[in-house]
Amino acid sequence: MGRVPNVTRADALSAVRNPLAFIAERWTPTPRTVRRAALAALVMSVVIVVTGGAVRLTGSGLGCPTWPKCTDDSLTTTSAMGFHGVIEFGNRMLTYVLCAAVGWAIIAARSQKPWRRSLTRLGWAQFWIVMSNAVLGGIVVLVGLNPYTVAAHFLLSTALITVAAVMWQRTREGDGEPRPLVGASVRQLVWFLVTAALLLIAVGTVVTGAGPHAGDSSEVNRIPISWETVAKLHAVLAWIVVTLTFALWFVLKAVDAPKGPLHRTRDLFLVLLSQGAIGYVQYFTDLPEALVALHMFGSCLVWIAVLRVLLALRERPEVVADLPGPSTESALTRA
Fold first, then answer.
1. pLDDT attached to residue 289
2. What is the pLDDT of residue 4?
3. Contact at 8 Å (CB) between 154 and 49?
4. DSSP-assigned states of every residue in 82-150
5. How far is CA 252 from CA 76, 91, 181, 299, 311, in A?
6. In the 8-state DSSP scheme, what is residue 60?
7. pLDDT tier at 321, thresholds 50, 70, 90
8. What does the alpha-carbon distance between residue 80 and residue 71 come to, in Å, rounded to a whole number?
9. Contacts of 203 (CB under 8 A, 6+ apart)
10. Would strands 179-180 and 314-315 be described as parallel, antiparallel, or unpaired?
11. Among 163, 151, 234, 239, residue whose Cα is nearest residue 200
12. Measured between alpha carbons, how far is 256 from 175 in angstroms, rounded to an integer?
């Protein structure tokens, strides 16, 4: 066993002043480690959405009736609060696991050699979104599960998934200028697809806000609109997304596009078919809790798949330092 180096006073002060730089000076993660850290943050951003859905579907949204404490007198759940208190408090505790995953991604990105500032910024963006959503989650509780705040809570989680997915993709790319792999018309079609997918997710939050799963057994205000009507609009948008995806696949095949965009479009199409099947089954079976939870999970996968299609339309090579050519070398020698 090697000798453990002594930690000097200067080292301790350096660690306190800038802990990330202190770690980066002493640890260099492999590219695989950085990719895994980014993937862990992405996975946890999906897990927190699914567990948040479990809180809602079990009627545990007010299991901890206040925030940031669980009750006025206790920071944690109590035995008197029963099952609902455990579910709600457990979801709050998962926020710390999410923070740990995001923190690992930030540390790994900061410690990579050479340092890629863009990756570190994506990690910090996730951190601030998590903090903002934690505060918004507290507001959701304090206003008694107002459906509009619940919808905003989910949309901010979608923003977190967006940044996490982009960071995961960027760990597998270089920092060179992006080079498009397809033409401008294909890229425009994909942006139509992204817009339609965003509308699909947004309308889905309205379906949830107007639907029967209010999130708590007490009287909770709902969005004053027929959830069945909004669900039909949601279905129309889903078919638009499916149609755009199929059209994109057909166009990519016609222009002999690289395999990357084709494979990502195929993956999206398969996820959409699965999600659509779940959506129709839950609609005709009066929204059973298990299928609603699965549909929320599928919503995250659909959005990630859409982002992967968008990011597959370009490549970013490694940045190569300019090396002096023969003429430059001769000039330097003569000087």
1. 86
2. 43
3. yes
4. HHHHHHHHHHHHHHHHHHHHHHHHHHHHHHSSS--HHHHHHHHHHHHHHHHHHHHHHHHHHTTS-HHHH
5. 54, 42, 11, 25, 15
6. B
7. very low
8. 11
9. 230, 233, 234, 237
10. antiparallel
11. 234
12. 27
Rounded mean pLDDT, 69-79: 86
The mean pLDDT value of the chain amounts to: 88
Residue 206 has pLDDT above 80, yes or no: yes
Confidence grade of residue 9 (pLDDT, cut at 50, 70, 90) = low
Which tokens sit at 166?
């982009």
For residue 134, what are its two tokens?
């934690």
DSSP state of 333: H
Concatenated DSSP letters of 202-255: HHHHHHHHHSS--SBSS-----SS-HHHHHHHHHHHHHHHHHHHHHHHHHHHHT
Whether 264 has a pLDDT exceeding 80, the answer reads yes
Single-letter residue type at 207 = V
pTM comes to 0.89
b/e map of 294-328 (b: 16 or more CB within 10 Å)?
A: bbbbbbbbbbbbbbbbbbbbbebeeeeeeeeeeee
Cis status of the peptide bond prior to 114, with omega within 30 of 0: yes
Task: Report pLDDT for 171.
Answer: 95
CA distance 246 to 286: 30
Read off the amino acid at residue 147: P
Place of tokens 């695989």: 32
Burial class (CB in 10 A: 0-12, 13-18, 19+), 164: buried
Tens digit of pLDDT for each residue in 272-293?
A: 999 999 989 988 888 888 898 9
Helices marked H in 143-183 — which ranges?
A: 147-170
Hey, how many other C-beta atoms are within 10 angstroms of the C-beta on 256?
Answer: 7
Contacts of 38 (CB under 8 A, 6+ apart): 105, 108, 109, 119, 123, 164, 167, 168, 170, 171
| Residue 258 vs residues 42, 63, 107, 141, 314: alpha-carbon distances, Å | 26, 51, 34, 48, 10
